[in-house]
Design goal:
The protein is about 5% helix and about 45% strand. With about 120 residues, it is mostly beta strands.
Length: about 120
């Protein structure tokens, strides 16, 4: 089941560049692994919001646009996933927008079906 049924009908109807419903969930545990040259570095991150197509994160480590990374997310007590992604947007010095290599409907299904609270994010 797709989670983007509430997406804007056209770019002109919304200032947001996101095309899928964004969810906020405060208890997601997450790390980001980036590989530069031949060295892998795993860094803890804060998930600001997530959709089936991408994620907005806060991280103290500087990332460059188009950097390919791997996200390790623990979404519920019994579900974790590893998602390849690419940095596509810089919102501030510590906030980045990443797009997933593949749509993550299963991850979103776990967020929605979890008994813990989540909210729908309407703005960046």
């Amino acid at each position: 089941m797709s989670d983007d049924i509430f997406a804007p009908l056209s770019e002109s109807t919304s200032a947001s560049l996101r095309k899928a419903v964004r969810y906020r969930k405060s208890d997601i545990k997450a790390t980001l692994t980036s590989k530069q040259w031949f060295i892998s570095k795993t860094i803890p991150i804060n998930v600001l919001d997530i959709s089936s197509k991408g994620i907005c994160i806060a991280i103290e480590h500087k990332l460059s646009i188009n950097t390919k990374v791997v996200l390790n997310l623990k979404l519920t007590t019994d579900y974790s996933c590893t998602i390849p992604a690419k940095v596509v947007r810089l919102y501030s010095t510590t906030e980045y927008g990443l797009v997933f290599d593949k749509t993550q409907h299963t991850a979103i299904d776990h967020i929605i079906s979890d008994e813990a609270d989540f909210t729908i994010a309407f703005e960046q």
